[in-house]
Queue: 4 jobs
Job 1
Amino acid sequence: MPEFTRDELRDIQGTILSGFAHLPYASYLFLQIKDAAKVKPWLEKITPQITTGEPWDKLPDGLRQKPPVTLNIGFTYAGFEALRLPEETLLSFAREFQKGVAARSKTLGDTGASAPEHWEMGGPGTEAIHIILVLNAANEAALEAFREQQRQLLQVSQGGLIEVNAQHGHRPPSEKEAFGFLDGISQPKIQRTLGYPEPNQWVIRTGEFILGYLNEYKEYPLSPGIAAKNDPDNLLPPFPENAIPDCKDFGRHGSYLVYRKLAQDVPGFWNYLADNARRGPDGSPDTQDMVYLAAKCMGRWPSGAPLVLAPEKDDPALGRDRGQNNQFTYQPTDLEGLACPVGSHVRRCNPRDSRINEEPAESLTSVNRHRIIRRAVSFGADLFPREDVERGKIPLDLKDDHQERGLHFFAINASIGRQFEMIQSTWSNARSFNGLFDNKDPIIGDNDGSSHMTLQRDPIRQQLNHVPRFVTVRGGGYFFLPSITALRFLGSRL
Ligand code: N7H
């Protein structure tokens, strides 16, 4: 299989292929279409501004000329309805996308405080969202200027498009999330991107993340189509292998984007671990044991070192070693979970070669049908410096300051149902998982105090009981990230 050509990369939105590590500040502008007819001039102006996957030019010193800001765009199903895409196209989007994230609350375990009725955006009691603009910049000032520029640009729609919500966040230089752990380590490599022409155990077929290419079933992912007669200027490509004659492929080079605003209960997390930790001579919780238990829940140490490779204590050099910190499988050394618990967050979300009743290679094949590309950015002020966790400095008796903090979590995938939703529901929220029972993902599971977290141990396992919910959903949306060609097509129809 060849790598993507420059023209193909120019057609794919950049956020699918890059986390823009050099641009840690982000804003998300949520827009509503009031009058589709007035959106045309805006769409025509914004389309050439969308950051694509085109490789960055090399400077004379050999370094890449990275963009100072990036812009990406996604549409909800309601957004495509508002833009009056033909019915045949609307109905050819994936079912879960048609329903939207709030309607999927049962599947996702969005209950209690996480129920869509309580969401601050994207729920039934808030303004309808049609479009998300994803803005990235190098610092706060550059982000603010870029945001203002985008808000000005909205004016060309003369009220046809309004902003209904805005969210902001940034990745701290330590790359630690609010519980104090290094994040953003394990990402699937996409076949056809630079250096990965062929799929293998670690390189996932393109069609898991970009429509129009074969996926891990060696099939083409479901892609929205449009009758050829509805594309009179012949802008859109045919379906792969011209599989549906008389129909054009609206989805090619596009993908689905899941957004979840996830609040993290930092005092609740550390106080729970304090309650369960060994006591020191003075009767107070042993902070080293608290970090140990937290790492067992996570599957990695605060530095990012995977428990499989560093079972007893953190190994900061390994944690930071981008070449090594994701080089592991669970077989043959840790099938039983003695190093990395079977129910830990990372092992549930990507069991790699460890699914029970499957040979390692078989397990990798089936697990690789449920991978996601994650993009996450923190919001909210720290209760205590998150970098302190790696140093074992965790304050005891943390008081809840009632300030929200957490992650703007994004998942990119070709099938929301088979990828993001499957991980959240069948792996993280399931009481029975890979031989466990009455356990749920201790980090993102829909825990309600009735389930446990089992730490496999020889001779006797340890059990953390009555795990509460540490992550609450505060809002969300299911979006489609069209190709640049599809964006031009959308503009041409208005
Ligand atoms: Fe998770 N965390 O910071 O505590 N996650 N996650 N996640 N997560 C991972 O390997 C975290 C969430 C995955 O390939 C790490 O990059 C938090 C959702 C997957 O081995 C850490 C939240 C879903 C992986 C966290 C959160 C996932 C992963 C280790 C919510 C999907 C890769 C760093 C607030 C439904 C597993 C790394 C692999 C890793 C954290 C949410 C999925 C530290 C705080 C909702 C697939």
Job 2
Amino acid sequence: MKMIVANLKLNLDLGEMIAYKNKLDNLVNENNYVVICPGYPYLSFFNDANYHLGAQNVSEYIKGAYTGEVSARDLSSLDVEFVIVGHSERRQYFNETEKNILPKINNILDNKMIPIYCIGETKEQKSRQKTFIVLEKQISNIYNNLASDKAQKIIIAYEPVWAIGSGETPSFKEIDEVIVFIKNFILKNYKIDTQVLYGGSVSGQNITDLMSVNPCDGFLVGSKALDIHEFSNILINSESEQ
Ligand code: PGA
């Protein structure tokens, strides 16, 4: 059973979320490991045994006069287990860099939750064959500044920026190579065995092939998590192969 992280992003309003959850409740069972990441207002909807609860973001700050922010303390008190950080949409639209991501990761860990740290190259970086350099930098900027007992709790999500929401994915061989690279880099430099997920245009169609990428420990799913038919295929396939 591989971990499936459903990132619902900024999509469903109250009525839509209720309808979506009703459908999802019929799909998800004990053969799945689903981390559901709805918007903040809907977190408590999914606080039941079928799901592991995830948040899409968290504040750099823990407490105080920071209007509009949601802290790791708040999330933890709502039974959130996982928090996505460093997503390329946060990097792109909200100018987040590892400078902002590091305190978020510290806050998540200090509040007994697990960070899902997203890394990945842009199309332009890929075409200049800079993928490995970019990934090394995104990893080192965080891991070099964290104690090892903290760093070992991080889950990495490899999400090529150009694959997110585009319908394009790297070849399965490329995904395999990059995930092995990430695992080896972290093992060699930090002596940590890391779980690595793949994200970027995961669908009901490509999940069977993606499941055969052995070093991959699970998937981060965006748009196709909203499509119940597609998501059902993803779940069924993620439970059938080990
Ligand atoms: P996608 O999004 O599945 O729509 O490509 C993935 C993500 O943003 O994590």
Job 3
Amino acid sequence: MSVICIDNDKSKIEKLNNDIIPIYEPGLDKLVQRNKYYKRLRFTTDVESAVKDSDVIFIAVGTPAMENGEADLNYVVDVAQTIGKYINEYKVIVNKSTVPIGTGEIVKNEIKKALKHRNVNYNFDIVSNPEFLREGSAIYDFTHPDRIVLGLESEKAANIMKEVYRVLYLNETPFVITNIKTAEMIKYASNAFLAMKITYINQIANLCEKVGADVHHVAKAMGMDGRISSKFLHPGPGYGGSCFPKDTNALYKISQKIDEPITLVGETIKANENQKLKMALKIKEAMGELKEKTIGVLGVTFKPRTDDMRQAPSITILNELAKYCVNFKIYDPEGLKEGKVRLEKIIDKIVFCKNEYEAITDVDALVILTEWNQFRIMDLKKIKQLMKGNYFFDFRNIYERKIVEQLGFKYYCVGR
Ligand code: UGA
């Protein structure tokens, strides 16, 4: 199988053609290089020949949230129109973008309109094939999926898609073959459920703090119940990223619009916002007067192993603290470039540092916001010596209270 990647962003394609990956995703550079070397993969802006040369066309563009929370389908519609403009024989058009239920129909109509305009009549099939990989472990997740979901309308398209995923099909990865609307719904329902699960454990963690229970033991014991599972039960400063915030909002909007509101999702969205603010409040309550205090922040990306800052809890938390005239020293292994773009806009007193030790030198408090592995193995004795104050906010619960307190820190975490 050979793959052509098309984008209208010339600089992105140029970078990819020069072996520069525009995002940080572990292992992706080698994977791309290998497949380019074997001539199975190429990058181009020439959409016309790419459409004509392909049997299967994946739509994988962004569906960002609009002001009102609904998904913006402009990019999807644009691509559908472009496909309609250039197809020259039967094609399978697969939607990988996360889209509202009914988008498959919109794509189909756009292509039909374009064909009518050209006065031609080629057959095509629409497939919905939602993606479940996570940033930071994209390659593993993609090659070891729990299931492949295919929403489609014809036997022919089903056979072609099984051929596309032949390796997984032979590995006995479960395939869920259903109609297009159901496949579209599966994606939103899955992401919203995971966001709800995180929010649930965050709220349990907040309660644990008040009643003196340990959320880690609670989550561990809950997770042992096969019906619950231990995954996505890690409490923290709230979920972020380009998916959960956007998809919960979009699903909630859709459900409200058709007068069947999924109130649990609505509450999840509110509770997640609140969780981020709670972290800022926790720092304020512990430290009292924050004016001119300096806080060292370790990790600003929405999760480790990515440089992605979209909807990162750090943005809300730091923005909230900045209201008290706090000085920040920031370090993130991959997020500094993006962090500068996002944070310098909203915060004045911010310095970006070369490593974790520089970021905590002479600070009154340190705050861990992203659980990068290197933050799990820091030399705490050295940190204690380098810091001016002794506040230690571990909002990813990666340290043991006893060990940290023994060194003379005041330790705060989430739910323990
Ligand atoms: C998420 C889903 O997990 C993927 O299945 C889906 O394909 C993807 O969205 C998407 O729709 O494209 P992603 O946003 O890359 O993946 O990352 P996650 O690992 O799900 O983390 C999302 C947020 O939840 C992060 O801020 C993370 O720190 C937080 N989280 C996750 C927790 O706070 N606790 C957990 O137990 C798990």
Job 4
Amino acid sequence: MKDFILWFEDQVKKTIEEYALVSRDDKILVACSGGKDSMTVLYLLKKFGYRVEGLIIDLLIGEWSQANLDNAQRFCDEQGIKLHVVSVRDVLGGSMCYIRSKIGAEKKLTTCAVCGVIKRWLLNKKSRELGADKVATGHNLDDQVETLMMNLLKNNIKLNAGQQPVTGVVKDDKFVPRIKPLFFCLNKEVRKYSELKKFPVLYDNCPCASGVFRKEIREELTNLEEKFPDFKENMVRNFLKILSGVKNEGGAIAYCEKCDEVSRKKLCKFCDLMSVLEREKFK
Ligand code: SF4
């Protein structure tokens, strides 16, 4: 048990150092979901001596959100970490389920697709307002390989440019760089660490999780990992080697004409969704 904990912590430390994810002066905001991955990131960055605070977006998905919020608050209180809470109701006027019910059908988007756009927009805006130098997320090796494979199968290889330990495509004062300290840690390793450390987290999936495609990819990749150990890590490391070719196709940065946040189009994805929400509200 002790050996695994030391080994795991060493893996995370190596990733932070190898990819120069943070410097000692950085203020790091950890995007907390209340789950095992973000709790592990929060705990380890604090343990390694970095300046760290948490930010949780309350999606108001019933008891699941409340339990995650309570767990994150309890954990941060115990660890002496400041936790910022942003409620989607305060910002957008309703729960994630309400927002999705209003805009998902017209845009033909799943709950996760809507939720992802809203979380990314809020996370960047709030972390910038809070003066963060970096935003740390809990993405692990399984998340990374799944996303790489999904983008390849959907012929969206350009989207893979952002799949690095530190986001490297968008460089702009308005964009807070995102780092992924668990980039080379398997999901099962993070879970084992979290369980051994007895972190107060839910291991249940979000009740609104929608991605059937991701689930199928996950199963196939897990089968491959069983047959070919280290398959996931090799895939990610090989992808990182060819990344420069993908990055060159990133395109120019612009600002959304409505919210003034970083966007590749006139209207960012968030404002595009919000325009539907506004219309639906007044029907
Ligand atoms: Fe949002 Fe989907 Fe994650 Fe649930 S599983 S929090 S709906 S992105």
